[in-house]
Amino acid sequence: YLIGYISHQKPMVESDCGQSVTVETSGTNRGKPSPAQTVPPPDVSLSWKDVTQLLTDKLSSEAFKKTLKEFDLLSRTAGSEGDLNLANRIFTTFKTLEMKPWTDIHYVQLPMPDSNNPNTVDFGSDVKPAGYLAYSKPGRVEGRLVYGNYGRQEDLDFVQGRVDLKGSVLLLRAGKITFAQQVDNAARMGASAVLIYLDTKDYNLVTDTELYGHVHLGSGDPYTPGFPSFNHTQFAPTESAGLPKIPAQTITANTAAALLRNIGGPEVDASTDFKGELKSVTYKLGGSQNITVERDAWGRGYTRATVGTSVLIELANAFHEMVKKDEFRPKRSIIFASWTAGEFGSVGATEWLEVSMPRSASSMYEAMGKNKWQTRV
Predict the structure, then answer these.
(1) Which Pfam families match (predicted)?
(2) Proportion of the chain in helix, strand, coil states, percent, rounded to 5
(3) Is a pLDDT exceeding 60 seen at residue 243?
(4) HEC string of 128-167?
(5) pTM
(6) Nearest-angstrom CA–CA distance, 292 and 143
């Protein structure tokens, strides 16, 4: 009882004049407030409004343009020398900003280029598209060309009532759902292959713009689903159930327009949203002429990696200045991370999560320090 009495912290209250007082809870003065020493107020941290204003002031369009130009590399395919060079430049920048960067190398299976076997689309004339959909099933198929709008389930149900989709090659325009969902829907309806293009009704673009993406119905390395792909990883051969079962290929709007001009079949009902805005094209459902699709090769992506890297670098610069000059003190550690292989379905980010999720952030950081891990994600 005595120890509890002596060590018990007396409650503090504010008087009308703002002075701190102590309330005694024993003896003859019980319940009577007596003056106590004034406690200085704690340092007030920046509010969220202050932080957003600081970021607004520091993130200028001129700085972004400069960083975009500096980090715009000609080749940065995941796993390439350009990709490694980009990672090293980010690492060096972070060191310059007095951060504590690390890199982590994962070993994943990615489709690689084969210049001897380019992708082809043959519909009267042979086209070799440069665009690419990663993880598409390789192979050569031939089938009736059918237009299926966005490839949503309701779109394909509408077409199926007018044109048989079994064994067809579906021509779809990008949008509304992901490439992977489009290909999965087409496969479940019995189609043998998918061609995807950008319609000028949905995108303001140059009509010879090449299109890149992936068709894995999931994220991360589809050949090590659920666990990280380290060089020492020894697991039984497995693959994601989200890998496509049919070939898929992107084509330009110009190529799609040439196909649609000769597709034949019933004209699209004006009451539907099937009609795009490609010039000199009457949108028809097709189903009357065969087309051949052969998929085997790789093409490189472009804009997304540069833009994402530039945003990351400028944010790191801004936070560095806020800590140095504006007394910004975050209550938690902030990790600035750059991941590669995003065009394959957020492979780098997913691999990192597969490593870090089983452990707490603090224990992960300690492990990285003790084992001298280097994380290039």
Answers:
(1) PA (PF02225)
(2) 30, 15, 55
(3) yes
(4) CCCCEEECCCCEEEEEEEEECCCCCHHHHHHHHCCCCCCC
(5) 0.71
(6) 7
